[in-house]
């Protein structure tokens, strides 16, 4: 804070005027540097409504260095004139004076002096008048006093041309009295302290106003990843709908459970090297439920259970190949097989976990993503049931147009009956990726901005909580 | 899903009716198709190559329609129109028929020699008579052949189709295989003869054909088909001869399909091809195709195409119960007939007899028939209902624990990272100063890049890479992840298992071991495990190559090792392109289930 004496001096000046006062004038009046007055204005503003101050800029005439010299010592021509005694002065001597050259020619043109070239002993200069009026000095002194308005523009420009004056832009404050104007200063407190509360002194204190425009200090905390926040919400939706979570913590799967058990033929393009990551170590799965495997082999190669089958030579070697599961439906198959080994009870299952595709990567495809899957098994489920349950699910998501984000269907009898599920049991299922609805929800176009080690942590820090239905 | 691109006005002309875009979109939806895009050649060129290239291109309106993968019979304008007309009950479903040559002569014959055995041993053939092309139908015919090559023929790897102007060649035809240097002919769109070897290098730069060269490139013998005068019909699966090419004036067509493997799928390709091409027949209402004979190296003779119809019997009740509707057997039969599955009520109860045409190899079970009935009924007309299935939900314990811990780790000031489960060998071995053999890592046999060589055995590399990508963020960086790693495990059926890990790192100007140690204490507090040697948890100095010597401890809970914590080795820090000290904790959380 600026020195209290200065602040009060400023306030006393302000009290005397009607309207307002320019900070430049205050500086001139108090005889202090303008910068000090600017500091004082800012200190007073911080006290609340004592004063109000508006910044303004104006043009002003100021003396140059040479101008100041002239205002003090007289113009060059005057100095030349004054240096010449009545008996005159040799020209070469006059020219040695600091003001000699400029002053000589100006004094000549003012006809204050004359040059006698023919004088014996060399050219000599003589006064031609008794007294002179040094108007240049007078004008500059006016400007120095801040009275430049008394000069005509033409005169000022003439002096500017002689580099004695310059026009400068001046920033200043236009100070007026505030709503709680007073000439005495009360110091404002910045914060409430335990002492003030204890003594009750807060009642008499004035508090410095807060700047409510500024941001607060960032909360010191960790942050959940946005995709995982969305996963939590999807889990919540399934749990609300009575679905039990499947054990999907097995990324490595055999082709048997990933494809064959789902009645996917062994020549299917999805089983190409181009689409699926196969495992070189451990390359093969070595344990299968043997009688179930035989039934799967039969339904593929010969048909049965009302099916024509695919009529090809089904090979165990193909089924044994280990891979990174391409969908969580491999786990659904394991769960349905397990279910079929007990007395049948209806089930609703879900999972949300990673799956892997050996695909070409682009802005919306990565080699791994999260699959959301829902499965319902019961007697007599219909397509109408599938559509009803999808409607409920997507209503909870708050997604009106959901056709494009997922797949759904009824599992084929060629898949269910070899497992040993009862004839009348239908299994309906649907799946979608976790990433796609998240990208739609948060307006992210490139999946790399959402998933993986290249994400910007600031995005994670800044992401809002996830409420899917709002 | 394959996409068919058709000219809108031609489509409407063939359908005998005009639609607005909305009306046609609606019709597609009802029929189980999707009107994917409305565009023009000009628009496509502008989008793909910029405005200049598109100058003068056609602005005829094109409909791009997505066709289900099982409906090969809808892959061209003609097939699509026929399907829609049958659906709208304006036409009857076609009935394909194989006939003997009309002039009473011998059928065309294709003789396969034993040389083909090593490269492409199977071939089938058929003949179409009385074709009339217009410019549009000719283009549609060529495009259809290309569509089939891309889809059912798997980019010609499984099957290659050749079509020839029968009047320019004379049978019997010979399908054999020869060394590339001995094959010489003038191929399609070229002005002179080339040897097969020359062709292979000529097509290396061909934007279209170069994709097929690999199929036979390294074979000692190339497949080749000659007519009785030694004229080359084709060198499958690469190119046809110029001599027998189809033109606008072609009347009679000889079709040959060659394949590596005569599975049902491949025989089906010929059937599909023939049945589709039949609709270019002048009297296409007859859907006739002329038989051709194929003679195998062992002397066996087969007649193609096999146009087998099959009848399935099912009850109306079955359809009603599966779809969730209540329709009479008669109306269900009508729905199926509209889907080109001719059906009639048999008179016994509500049994329906459904005839499966040879074009629908995908119909192998009553449930496929049910699906077509549902499409024809209209999914939008099926009443949605909630199943009465009563169940109690359970969370998977390891996921429940993970969800709870994640919340509290963020409350402890750590931010959650989400990193990839696949990475390079270097990430989990060299960069962590470990030997790859001691990691128990699962290896991927066919990675397209080094980023997918192994499944991760530690969460640490992902976290360090996340920090490396965020070095501009204010320090300290405190990150964690609770997720699965994958380890080889002989006791599992597939020889590997997932393991749920908790990993956290602290990255700052000083290592902050105490911060990571404090996090361990907090995690143990959350898991309700007290400090202590026997029933509780404790840490004990350990050597681990990932960590700075003397700055690493092993973590024990109830006497069992669950992981490590410590200050990372400076080499680990620099190998992940980091510059500051870093401490880390890595524990298995499965013991706390």
The helix content of chain A is 25-40%
Q: Helices and strands of chain A: which structural class?
A: alpha+beta
The order of strands across the largest sheet of chain A is: 9-13-14-16-15
The main sheet of chain B orders its strands as 13-12-11-8-5-16-17
- Stretches of chain A where pLDDT is under 50 for at least 5 consecutive residues are none
Based on Cα principal axes, name the global outline of chain A.
elongated
**Biggest interface in this structure?**
A-B, 89 and 82 residues
Radius of gyration of chain A: 48 Å
Which terms would index this structure?
heterodimer; A: 470 residues; alpha+beta; five-stranded mixed sheet; three-stranded antiparallel sheet; 19 helices; B: 593 residues; seven-stranded mixed sheet; 30 strands; acetylation (chain A); metal ion binding (chain A); ATP-binding (chain A)
Briefly summarize what is shown.
The complex is a heterodimer of chains A (470) and B (593). Chain A is an alpha+beta fold.
Describe this entry's structure for a reader.
The complex is a heterodimer of chains A (470) and B (593). Chain A is an alpha+beta fold. Chain A has 19 helices and 16 strands. Chain A has helices spanning 4-16, 23-30, 34-46, 65-73, 76-83, 91-95, 100-109, 135-144, 153-161, 194-199, 226-240, 255-258, 290-301, 316-320, 329-340, 383-397, 413-419, 435-442, 457-462, and strands at 20-22, 51-63, 89-90, 113-116, 124-127, 165-177, 188-189, 206-207, 244-245, 252-254, 279-281, 322-324, 347-356, 368-379, 406-410, 425-433. Chain A has a five-stranded mixed beta sheet with strand order 9-13-14-16-15, sandwiched between helices. In chain A, strand 4 and strand 5 form a beta hairpin. In chain A, helix 2 (23-30) crosses helix 3 (34-46) and helix 13 (290-301) packs antiparallel against helix 17 (413-419). Chain A starts with a helix and ends in an 8-residue tail after the last helix. Chain B has 593 residues and is an alpha+beta fold. Chain B has 15 helices and 30 strands. In chain B, strands 13-12-11-8-5-16-17 form a seven-stranded mixed beta sheet, with no helix packed on it. A seven-stranded mixed beta sheet of chain B has the order 21-25-26-30-29-28-27, sandwiched between helices. In chain B, helix 1 (8-15) packs across helix 4 (77-87), helix 8 packs across helix 10 and helix 9 crosses helix 10. The longest helix of chain B has 16 residues, at 135-150. Chain B is elongated and about 100 Å long. Chain B starts with a strand and ends in a 5-residue tail after the last strand. Classes of the chains: A alpha+beta (470), B alpha+beta (593). Chain A: Belongs to the class-II aminoacyl-tRNA synthetase family. Phe-tRNA synthetase alpha subunit type 2 subfamily. Chain A: This is Phenylalanine--tRNA ligase alpha subunit. Chain A: Its main location: cytoplasm. Chain A: Pfam families: PheRS_DBD1, PheRS_DBD2, PheRS_DBD3, tRNA-synt_2d. Chain A: Its EC number is 6.1.1.20.
């Amino acid at each position: 804070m600026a020195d209290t004496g200065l602040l009060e001096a400023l306030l006393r000046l302000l009290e005397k005027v009607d309207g307002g006062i320019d900070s430049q004038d205050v500086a001139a009046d108090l005889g202090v540097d303008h910068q000090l007055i600017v500091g004082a204005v800012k200190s007073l503003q911080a006290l609340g409504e004592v004063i109000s101050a508006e910044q303004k800029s104006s043009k002003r005439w100021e003396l140059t260095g040479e101008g100041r010299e002239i205002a003090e010592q007289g113009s060059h021509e005057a100095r030349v004139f004054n240096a010449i005694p009545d008996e005159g002065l040799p020209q070469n001597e006059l020219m040695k004076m600091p003001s000699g050259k400029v002053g000589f020619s100006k004094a000549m043109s003012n006809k204050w002096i004359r040059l006698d070239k023919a004088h014996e002993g060399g050219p000599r200069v003589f006064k031609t008048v008794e007294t002179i009026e040094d108007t240049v000095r007078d004008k500059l002194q006016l400007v120095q006093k801040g009275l430049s308005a008394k000069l005509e523009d033409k005169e000022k420009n003439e002096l500017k041309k002689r580099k004695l004056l310059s026009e400068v832009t001046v920033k200043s404050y236009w100070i007026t009295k505030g709503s709680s104007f007073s000439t005495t200063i009360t110091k404002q407190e910045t914060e409430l302290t335990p002492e003030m509360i204890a003594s009750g002194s807060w009642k008499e204190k004035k508090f410095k106003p807060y700047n409510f425009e500024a941001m607060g200090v960032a909360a010191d905390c960790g942050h959940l990843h946005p995709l995982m926040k969305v996963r939590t919400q999807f889990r919540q939706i399934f749990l609300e709908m009575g679905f039990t979570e499947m054990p999907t913590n097995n990324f490595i799967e055999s082709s048997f459970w990933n494809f064959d058990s789902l009645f996917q033929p062994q020549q299917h393009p999805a089983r190409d090297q181009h689409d699926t990551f196969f495992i070189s170590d451990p390359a093969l799965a070595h344990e299968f439920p043997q009688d179930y495997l035989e039934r799967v082999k039969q339904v593929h190669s010969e048909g049965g259970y009302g099916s024509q089958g695919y009529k090809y030579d089904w090979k165990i070697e193909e089924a044994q190949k280990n891979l990174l599961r391409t969908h969580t439906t491999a786990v659904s198959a394991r769960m349905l097989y397990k279910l079929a080994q007990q007395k049948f009870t209806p089930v609703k299952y879900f999972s949300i976990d990673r799956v892997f595709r050996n695909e070409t990567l682009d802005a919306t495809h990565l080699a791994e993503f999260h699959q959301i899957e829902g499965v319902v098994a019961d007697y007599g489920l219909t397509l109408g049931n599938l559509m009803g349950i999808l409607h409920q699910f997507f209503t909870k998501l708050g997604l009106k147009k959901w056709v494009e984000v997922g797949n759904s269907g009824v599992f084929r009898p060629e898949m269910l009956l070899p497992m040993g599920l009862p004839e009348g049991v239908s299994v309906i299922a649907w799946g979608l990726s976790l990433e796609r609805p998240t990208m739609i929800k948060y307006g992210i176009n490139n999946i790399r901005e959402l998933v993986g080690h290249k994400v910007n942590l600031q995005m994670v820090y800044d992401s809002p909580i996830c409420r899917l239905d709002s | 899903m394959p996409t068919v691109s058709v000219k809108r006005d031609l489509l409407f002309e063939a359908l005998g009716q005009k639609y607005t875009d909305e009306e046609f979109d609606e019709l597609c939806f009802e029929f189980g198709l999707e009107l994917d895009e409305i565009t023009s050649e000009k628009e496509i060129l502008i989008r793909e190559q910029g405005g200049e290239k598109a100058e003068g291109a056609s602005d005829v309106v094109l409909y791009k329609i997505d066709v289900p993968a099982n409906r090969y019979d809808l892959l061209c304008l003609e097939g699509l129109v026929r399907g829609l007309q049958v659906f709208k009950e304006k036409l009857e479903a076609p009935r394909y028929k194989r006939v003997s040559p009309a002039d009473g002569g011998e059928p065309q014959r294709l003789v396969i020699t034993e040389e083909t055995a090593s490269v492409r041993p199977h071939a089938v053939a058929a003949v179409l008579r009385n074709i009339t092309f217009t410019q549009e139908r000719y283009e549609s015919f060529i495009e259809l052949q290309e569509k089939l090559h891309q889809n059912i023929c798997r980019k010609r790897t499984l099957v290659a189709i050749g079509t020839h102007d029968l009047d320019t060649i004379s049978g019997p035809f010979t399908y054999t295989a020869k060394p590339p240097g001995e094959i010489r002919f003038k191929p399609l769109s070229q002005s002179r003869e080339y040897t097969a070897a020359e062709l292979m290098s000529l097509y290396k730069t061909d934007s279209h054909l170069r994709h097929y060269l690999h199929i036979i490139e390294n074979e000692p013998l190339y497949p080749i088909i000659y007519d009785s005068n030694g004229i080359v019909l084709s060198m499958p699966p690469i190119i046809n001869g110029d001599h027998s090419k189809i033109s606008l004036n072609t009347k009679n067509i000889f079709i040959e399909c060659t394949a590596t493997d005569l599975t049902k799928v491949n025989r089906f390709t010929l059937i599909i091809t023939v049945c589709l091409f039949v609709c270019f027949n002048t009297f296409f209402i007859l859907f006739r195709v002329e038989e051709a004979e194929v003679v195998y190296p062992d002397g066996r003779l087969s007649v193609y195409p096999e146009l087998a119809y099959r009848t399935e019997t099912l009850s109306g009740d079955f359809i009603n119960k599966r779809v969730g509707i209540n329709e009479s057997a008669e109306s269900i039969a009508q729905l199926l007939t509209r889907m080109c599955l001719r059906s009639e009520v048999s008179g016994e109860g509500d049994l329906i007899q459904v005839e499966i045409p040879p074009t629908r190899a995908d119909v192998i079970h009553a449930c496929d028939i049910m699906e077509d009935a549902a499409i024809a009924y209209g999914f939008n007309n099926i009443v949605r209902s909630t199943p009465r299935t009563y169940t109690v939900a359970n969370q998977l314990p390891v996921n429940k624990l993970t969800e709870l811990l994640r919340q509290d780790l963020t409350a402890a000031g750590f931010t959650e990272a989400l990193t990839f489960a696949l990475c390079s060998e270097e990430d989990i071995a060299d960069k962590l100063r470990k030997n790859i053999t001691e990691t128990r890592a699962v290896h991927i046999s066919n990675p397209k890049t080094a980023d997918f060589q192994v499944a991760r055995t530690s969460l640490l590399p992902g976290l360090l890479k996340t920090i490396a990508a965020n070095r501009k963020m204010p320090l300290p960086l405190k990150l964690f992840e609770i997720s699965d790693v994958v380890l080889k495990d002989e006791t599992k059926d597939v020889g590997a298992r997932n393991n749920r890990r908790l990993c956290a790192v602290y990255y700052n100007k000083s290592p902050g071991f105490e911060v990571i140690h404090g996090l361990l204490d907090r995690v143990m507090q959350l898991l309700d495990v007290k400090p202590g040697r026997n029933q509780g948890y404790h840490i004990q100095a350990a050597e681990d190559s990932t960590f700075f010597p003397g700055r690493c401890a092993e973590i024990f809970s109830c006497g069992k090792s669950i992981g490590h914590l410590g200050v990372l080795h400076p080499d680990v820090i620099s190998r992940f392109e980091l510059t500051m000290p870093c401490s880390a904790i890595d524990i298995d959380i499965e013991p706390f289930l």
